[in-house]
Structure of NTP pyrophosphohydrolase MazG-like domain-containing protein:
Amino acid sequence: MATESKLDELIAVTARLRAPGGCPWDAEQTHESLVKYLIEETYELVDAIETGTRDDLLEELGDVLYQVIFHADLAAHTAGEQFDIHDVAAHMTAKMVGRHPHVFGEVRLETADDVVAVWDDLKAVEKPSRTSILDGIPQGMPSLALADKLLGKAAKIGLLDADAPQSIPVASEDELGPLLLAIVASAKAQGLDAERALRSTLRDLQSEIREAEVDARQTPFDPDSSDAGVIAFPAAD
């Protein structure tokens, strides 16, 4: 008989905790009730990656893995879902193989940019119901991460010139951090909510992107036209 792996052992422990006669708390949980723990554990993993030790990383990866296994066990016993961790793994394996034709197929891709371009094309084929490059972007992302994501999408459709000179030049994250903090401090001193202000601006940006997509479907975008990079950012004083 094959020796049970440590991963199989964790799956079995999770199943026992949730089974009749196991832990009452575990048995009562739902996908929805666990969301806050998934978010918390994810941020703890981020902290471990950025500032933690090897042991911290090992522990926090385990906590996130446990969340995945817990949700899969829930699904295995929920009517209308009925998949388990093996189905999750099989789906992810198929996805990774399909998204990497340059590794598992005959396609030749030389650069990381080539890989990203093909990845986006394959994702569009896999999800034909999506009509916008914004579809699938979680709005609950931290606002700075969401801003970075949306600016990338804006550049992809020619709404933003990614190569244009920046109005606020910064050479490193060591310079960028204090600048961002100074902006937040200035907003706070004036009674303004920096988070709300950025999210409001991002909603406007998303509207611009969707409008540009509609225009592009009617008139294909010409990257050499004078209309490229229509998003304007305020210059630094």
